[in-house]
Amino acid sequence: MAFSVGDLVDLYDFGFRQWRGEYTVMKLPHETGGILYKIRNTKTGSQQFVKEKALRRSRLGPFRIESLQP
Fold it and tell me: Is the predicted pLDDT of residue 15 greater than 80, yes or no?
C-alpha cells in the first residue's frame, strides 16, 4: 500500500502496541534516499522517518493517554 505526499496517516507505536495519529506524509522513500517515509504530526509539527509497515490510512483521532488527562 503506497502512500502519497499529503496523505493523512496513523502511525503504529511499537512501544505502546497501538495506532496513533494523525500524521501527514511529507516525503516518499525515493526522496529520502532509502526505504523510509518522512511524516509530520499535524498537531505538534514533530517530524520523523518511518517504514511503510508502520503506517496506515488515517482513521483515528489524535493519540492521548486518558489517565494523564485532567
Answer: yes
Report how far residue 60's alpha carbon sits from residue 70's, in angstroms, rounded to the nearest whole number.
21
Residue 56, strand partner residues: 10
Which range marks the domain in which residue 49 is found? Answer: 8-63
Taking alpha carbons only, the member of 20, 19, 55 closest to residue 37 is 55
What CATH number did the domain enclosing 19 receive?
2.30.30
pTM for the full model?
0.78
What is d(CA 47, CA 23) in angstroms, rounded to the nearest whole number? Answer: 9
Partner residues linked to 49 by β-bridges: 38
Asked if residue 1 is part of any domain, the answer here is no
pLDDT confidence band for 2 (50 / 70 / 90): confident
Total number of domains constituting the chain: 1
